[in-house]
Amino acid sequence: HNYFWREQAMKKLPVLISSTPMLVCGEDLGMVPDCVPSVMHELQILSLEIQRMPKDSSVEFTNLEWLPYLSVCTTSTHDMSPLRSWWLENREVTQRYYNQVLHHEGTAPKECTTAICSEIIAAHMRSTAMWVILPWQDWMSLDERLRNPDVSAERINVPANPEHYWRYRMHLTLEELLKESAFNERLAEMSCRM
User: Fold this and answer.
1) Using CA atoms, how far apart are residues 140 and 134, in angstroms rounded to an integer?
2) Which strands sit side by side in the sheet containing 131-132, from one edge to the other?
């Protein structure tokens, strides 16, 4: 089984990779054949790293300071809850994250505040991954005035629900967003990874 998938990958992927000058990223989350990490490493395909979906089953949250350089770090994918929704989903997990990852004492706030969102995003931006690509909803969560008042409207896809469709729309127009110079300057500053 594993040999078959490795053989197929090594037959097809080098041809695809060499046919484009683009950087290749792989979605290697969840249940994947055991050969996937070594094939991706050998072919220098960037892995996808999400702090709350560790590839090491012995930890609850991935350490962002130990991500492989050949990776894309993100807070979530289109199939997951953005930060503010995730914060509300499971109070026990949120509490552990608040205490163990963010190193705060006491009870975690009920909602993911702008300060917490800022702290989480800043940590992702400091990660050792080559790329940090964050969902727009999480960037918007940094500003109390600009974040969507309806947290549930930020979810793009719910794979377990066949009736759910991709209906996410930014609740502001681009023209409104362009006028938010302080917000835009903050994003530019935060996204500068030198």
Assistant:
1) 10
2) 47-50, 71-74, 131-132
Q: State the DSSP code for 154.
A: G
Residue 101 lies in a domain: yes
Is 132 inside any structural domain?
yes
Separation between Cα atoms, residue 141 and residue 187, nearest integer Å: 11
Distance separating alpha carbons of residues 111 and 167, to the nearest angstrom: 23
- Number of Cβ within 10 Å of residue 97's Cβ equals 21
Domain range for 81: 76-190
In a domain, 30, yes or no: no
pLDDT tens digits, residue range 115-172?
A: 999 999 999 999 999 999 999 999 999 999 999 999 999 999 988 888 888 888 999 9
Amino acid at position 20, single letter: T
Residue owning tokens 């903050």: 186
**β partners of residue 132:** 73
| pTM, entire model | 0.92
Question: Exposed (0-12), middle (13-18) or buried (19+): which is 155, by Cβ within 10 Å?
Answer: buried
The angle formed by the CA atoms of residues 191, 193 and 194, to the nearest 5 degrees, is: 150
Counted domains in the chain: 1
63 falls within a domain: no
d(CA 112, CA 75): 14
